[in-house]
Amino acid sequence: MHSYLPFIEEILIDEETLQARIEALGAQINADYSHMSDLLLICVLKGGVLFLTDLMRHIHVPHAIDFMAISSYGPGARESSGIVRIDLDLRQNVEGRNLLIVEDIVDTGTTLAYLRRLLLARNPASLRICALLSKPSRRLTDIPIDYVGFEIPDKFVFGYGLDLDELYRNLPFIAAVKPGMYAHS
Ligand code: 5GP
């Protein structure tokens, strides 16, 4: 038996549905950026990694990638602390470039609002946001999300880059965790 099975309340988005939507997002991005040069995809670690690598395979506009690590959660906690910290910054200059943030999930919006302000202060030519998942009912900060994979209910989810207490990011689907379950308990 797979060790993650006891934690799953339900599979919210299966692999086929996920991949089809990512392909469609790629097509939309190709159309929107066809006349723009110097596209930089900024992946937010760690949750955005699987999404980035699948999405970029469907983006045919020339582009570079870079990574940032930002946290607003305490270790193991499932509620945003509201305090955002940069754990890893970009290694390149973004001035005058077309930036697309690739994020796993927008929950309260605190993390992305902070990241957006930070990057806009560096004078890019444009800045858009692509999030695989969004929990609109949890939003505390109104931020524009240009590309959304799926809107989901207020449930803690894991798989496909998202962790359950740092585990199970490798699963090819998105699952909702059974309330009260912790991977290390
Ligand atoms: P926000 O600042 O929007 O409240 O939180 C964004 C970050 O919280 C995400 O990038 C992600 O790391 C984490 N997060 C929010 N909701 C979930 C969830 O349902 N599952 C997991 N694994 N992480 C989440």
From TrEMBL:
Keyword Nuclease: no
GO BP terms in the entry: GMP salvage; guanine salvage; hypoxanthine metabolic process; IMP salvage; purine ribonucleoside salvage
Pfam families, per database record: Pribosyltran
Molecular-function GO terms, alphabetical: guanine phosphoribosyltransferase activity; hypoxanthine phosphoribosyltransferase activity; magnesium ion binding; nucleotide binding
The name this protein goes by in its record: Hypoxanthine phosphoribosyltransferase
Any single GO CC term annotated in Swiss-Prot or TrEMBL for this entry: cytosol
Annotated EC: 2.4.2.8
Pathway assignment: Purine metabolism; GMP biosynthesis via salvage pathway; GMP from guanine: step 1/1; Purine metabolism; IMP biosynthesis via salvage pathway; IMP from hypoxanthine: step 1/1
Family: Belongs to the purine/pyrimidine phosphoribosyltransferase family.
Cofactors (names): Mg(2+)
CDD domains: PRTases_typeI
Location in or out of the cell: Cytoplasm
Record keyword Ribonucleoprotein present: no
InterPro entries found in the cross-reference section: HGPRT, Hxn_phspho_trans, PRTase-like, PRTase_dom
Keywords of this entry: Cytoplasm, Glycosyltransferase, Magnesium, Metal-binding, Nucleotide-binding, Purine salvage, Transferase
Domain Phosphoribosyltransferase: 18-163
Catalytic activity: IMP + diphosphate = hypoxanthine + 5-phospho-alpha-D-ribose 1-diphosphate; GMP + diphosphate = guanine + 5-phospho-alpha-D-ribose 1-diphosphate
